[in-house]
Amino acid sequence: MNWAVEDKMTVNLLKTVEIVFQRPNIGQDLLPLKMTNVGRVNVAKLLGVYLRHDLNFSQHVDAVVAICSQRFYLLAQFKKQGLGISSLDTIIKAIVLNKILHALPVYYGYLTEEQKGVLQRVLDRATNRGFTPYYYDLDVLAVNAQYI
After folding, report:
1. How far apart are CA 148 and CA 58, in angstroms?
2. 32 is in which domain, residue-wise?
3. Per residue in 34-92, pLDDT tens?
4. Which residue has the higher pLDDT, 30 or 96?
5. 8 and 36 share one domain
6. Rounded to two decimals, what is the model's pTM?
7. Could you tell me which of 47, 58, 46 has the C-alpha nearest to residue 19?
8. Dist. CA 32–CA 67, nearest whole Å
9. Could you give the C-alpha distances from 140 to 60, 132, 144, in angstroms and in order?
C-alpha cells in the first residue's frame, strides 16, 4: 500500500486479494500478518491461471479441461456441417491448443503425472475425434513453448 501511495497509484480494495505461498507443513504461526482491508485467499486467478497457495495447479487443469470440452462440442458441430480437417486443425490450434499452451512453461513443472495425463487425454481426444491429422504430445509442446 505504501508503494502504491508513493507512486501515486490507487489500489482498488474491492478487487485486491492476498495469497501467501507456503509449504504444506508450515505452521499457521509462521504466516505473515494479514493485510488490513484485504482478504486472504487460498486460490487466485491471475492472467487466466489459477494459482493456489501450495502451488498445486489442479484447479487450473480442471478449468482448462472444462473449457476444452466445451470447445470440442463446437468443433463437432463444425465437422457435422462438413468443415474440412485442415480447417478444423486451424480451429483446434486457435481455441484448444492455445488454451492449453497459455502459461504452460509457468505451471508445467508443478504438474503431477496424473494432471499431465489429463491434459494429454484432451489432446488425444482432438486426434481421435478427427479434428486434426496431427498427434500433439504435451511434453513436446511444453518444451517448445519455452522458446516461443
Report:
1. 25
2. 2-52
3. 777 778 888 989 899 999 888 889 999 999 999 999 999 999 999 999 999 999 999 99
4. 96
5. yes
6. 0.82
7. 46
8. 35
9. 20, 17, 6
